[in-house]
Design a protein that fits this description.
Elements (H helix, E strand, L loop, with lengths): L3 E5 L3 E5 L13 E5 L1 H11 L4 E7 L3 H12 L3 E7 L5 E6 L8 E5 L15 H4 L3 E7 L1 H4 L2 H17 L3 E4 L4 H4 L6 H9 L4 E3 L2 H8 L7 H15 L5 E11 L2 E10 L2 E4 L3 E4 L7 H14 L4 H15 L11 H9 L7
Parallel strand pairs: 1-4, 1-8, 2-6, 4-5, 8-9, 9-10, 10-11
Antiparallel strand pairs: 2-3, 6-7, 11-12, 12-13, 12-14
Helix pairs in contact: 1-10, 8-9, 10-11, 11-12
Amino acid sequence: MSGRIVCFGELLLRLNAPGRELLLQSGVLQVHVGGAEANVAIGLSSLGRDCAMVSAVPDNALGRGAVAALRARGVDCAGVRTLPGRMGLYFMTTGAGSRASEIVYDRTASSFARAKSGDFDWDALLHGAALFHLSGIVPALGPASVEVARQAVRAARALGVPVSFDGNYRAQLWSAWDSTPAPILRDLIDHADLLFGNHRDLSLVLGRSFGGEGESRRREAADAAFAAFPRLKLMASTARDIEDADCHRIAARVDLRDGFAQTPAVRVTGIVDRIGAGDAFAAGVLHAWLKGGTADELARTGLALTCLKHTLPGDASVFREADIAAFHEGGLDVRR
């Protein structure tokens, strides 16, 4: 399947303590441009896909810099509005050993969070699109963002554009306002063709728990999702076992209505930066899905990109098809 992939979400600046320092330990911060949906757009663009970003930023150096960073990676930013408000930020301390990474959000009253339904012409933005991608972070930003997300997925449905939705539950964001995430997320997922999430996401959305362990629990959750959401065709997720901040074991899974594929776990060591690994996984799965790949190909491509993302500073995967092939071939000697 060819055509433009449209991603919708907030562009953010990440301010990171250098190395493994605590925030403000040395008074120095490193800046990366990110945002869950923007990360997916960059990941897909790096794989040769035609991608467009829809968002809102302030008309200042921070907003212009974020847009320029996406354009530099080949993402069409004609759909990024400049609106009143401020740039959304988040601060991160990178974990080490037995100390976990930690994030502090600073995105209240950002231009994106203040955007309203009438700020986006969805018929024009989605015209001719092959896929529309957004995540649960969009509605988590407040009531206005909930309505914008609802308008977007309904427009996609009306235009016959497949919808990809990543659960991306962020408790800190939902708890910042008088929210009821389960029915909001359920309404959005009801429009989705592809869902990124696991049994924990489905427990929240469907208000039920899933028994068992491992593969059986994941299949039970997938069956519940397919029963609850008639349009849903595919559910993809990763399983992560954390030994410490520098060593994780990661497996990928794709569930279809009539089958599934699950990869063996890969031990990822010497982790440089795990932020955006889930978005890299989504980009890999969507890339393989757009190529008409099998469930196994989707899972393996997503796993390759999520593992590779752990080796790269910053929020987004910028790897190419050749990097995915090299990952599957193995071997760590210098490529000459």
